[in-house]
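User: quick one, fold this
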Amino acid sequence: MRITRSVPARPALIAALALATAGSLLLAPGAAGADPLPVTREGSALDDRAARAPESAARRALTADSSTGTTTRGYPRRQTLSPDAHNPGDKSLKLGLTPYHAIAPKLNALQRLGDRVSVEVTGRSAGGHRLYLVTVTAPETTRQARAQERMRDLIENAPAAAAKSREIKREYKAPVFVNSNIHGNEWEGTDASLKVIEQLATAKDAKTRDLLAHSRLYFNITANPDGRVAGTRANANGFDLNRDFVTASQPETRAMRQIGIGKQPAVLLDLHGYVNGTLIEPTTPPHGENYEYDLFLKNSYANALGMESAVNALGYTPAKDGVEAAQIPFRDQEEGWDDWPPIFTPQYAAFHGTVAAHTVEIPLAVNNEEYDELPVPELRRRSAVNTAVAGAAIRATLDHVREHRGALITDQIEVFRRGATGAAQVPVSPETVPGVPGIGPEDVYTTTFPRAYVIPPAGARTQRSGPAASRLVDHLLANGVRVTRATRPFRLAGRAHPGGSYVIDMHQPKRGMANVLLADGRDISGKVSVMYDISGWSLGSLWGATVERVPSGSLRGAPLRPVGEAAPVTHVPAHGDLRLRLTDPREIAALNSLLRQGVPVRRAADGGVIVPASARREARSAARAHDVSFTATRQRGTAPLRRLRVAAAVTPGELFALREMGFDVTPVSTAVLNAGFDWRASGADVLFVSAGLDHAALTAPARQALDTFLDGHGLVGRGATGAALNAAAGRLAVEPVEGNADANGVVRVTNSGAVTRDAPDRGFVYAPLWFTDPGPGVRVEQSYATGNPLVSGHWRPLGDGTGGPAAAAGQASVVSGDRTVLFGTEPLFRDHPKGEFPQVARALFTVAHSASVKESG
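Assistant:
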């Protein structure tokens, strides 16, 4: 589920609703409504779990991708799925729900019920499980399927023509996407979907026939099979998939992304748990400023009312069943459950033309402590209630689609038309969104779209590396954003741009997607007191490429050609020794691949590395594999580098990022060390700590072993946990100061040391930390900018006035010395801020290879 703080309902609209906490124990049906408690975050909002993901899963997730796209085959598309081995440990079994190994046989049986059900495998999860997409629709010939594709493409790519098309009005099938089980231990959406599919497969009534004749219904049966089996929120890599849509680091997320692009749903349900009563979006402020929010709110609120009515009509009560009445956050709460960041499924889908999108939180908790402590009969009673609630939400949505298909498609066309023509957004108001009560100035969020963005090639007005621009362009394309490239130099808005520049024309159907990824974002600290999750995420600021915003001007006559992929960066000079920059994670990965092969690499005085001419063959292989560029050099290099083995007590996102850069990483934690971890046998060269390692909680032998290791090895620490270990080990003489733990976003920084050399002047923070009172030998590598360092996000002082951005301004954010580097920023957060990754890599190499950071400079 998405967890939030509860706040009073909008007083002019409805009396405050009592929300049972997601973690409360409802041992008897009547207990649920007896002492309602506010909803709270499920543990810390900050991801501070120690990572345990297997390396094989990380490798699979880096290389796997989904294959769901457009096809010209008709429907049904039957296939017989091979069975999975029976798994008695599947956590679904205790709840009386469908275990993963029973899904394939169930889908085979559903396909045999008639000619309405089709199954596709969209990819595999990080843990290797198949991902199933079920389509339910009336049969289509190949010719009819091609016509549907043509109409879908017309809606996005020629929306003005689509708005006038009688064929679309008459024949286009409204796409609906039901996403289930994205959080693995929120199970029941899967079972509800299977029940609804079975009903649709065999129903003979006129309403069902009409629905399937005019709709395609897509069911992602379990978005997170790894978590379903294991009973965990996250997938096998430890990722919360409902936070990954901007980055798309995980194969499951990429599969869902491709469904959104390929199927172009007008309506989406994302089925979660557990909030009592059932929570049905739309959300509280702030609302994403890049949406066509008037269209989104109009349709989402109307569908929410239907779902609310259907859920309440099931007849569950607090006294009898422990089930509270359903709630709609937009109507019933002031803040705390927002749709600001596009990291959640419904909010991300809005940028692909979804005009009604909802997180639905079913009511009765069966996970976490409830799963372990409640008796099985009570767990199964709750699961049955939850399945019925999810089913009611699905069926109400299908009724809404059948009744309002024309309006939904018309509004989807309008989303794309506004983007293609550069039309202004329409602010929400009682006049522009009639029928939605309580709209006020707190709900109005719009932005000014630039005319274009320009990403210059490497070396043009920037020293940023080519791989960053290449990665960013490919990511934009993967998200359905149109990108062009200049065939020769040109001028735009009075400024000259070099040939080879990438240009994102913001007069395009998915301008909202382009802008939400590339723009700096906004400081919304003054708008609301609390945010649900991250509030800043800019790829333009954090991914390492130079991104130039062009506010106005004309692209008419510009020498631009559409691109389907970024131009390769790969280059290795034919003669001489080679220099490799270390300003991008791909360059770090290339370096680590060379070190694994035993290539004698030496440091360069300017922060890069020198590869001898004798290793040109290995350099060419690394350049091709990682799409990086080497340059010729006459530098001799300084100290030699060697392959590193990193022991890491870090979050899953950090572990994934380290392995993405090619580091050999062994996860450790307090429990692992207390179990007798053998530091000598591990071969570890350096320890990286940010989560899950508490020096005070170690046994005496484990503490002694760790202290002995640190006596001769380097330490990299991040956040409060890293700073605490530094203090316990007596390393750097600094005073860590913790900011507001809820603060997060993009910040301005000033880089001043070898570790942060050539790093972007933007960083990312979550629960920011800074360092004061540096003692002898402590070097400031980076500082928060003076003034207000926050570029975008939400960062307020604490109640006593401390912990805010003004307190952090000008203070050290990264410090080093005595084979130690400490970060107060989040340079690897959820595998996202790619441009910051090399800071961590340099820190690891520095502390592992040098007697002190000062000597390394």
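User: anything notable?
Assistant: The two ends are 47 Å apart (CA to CA).
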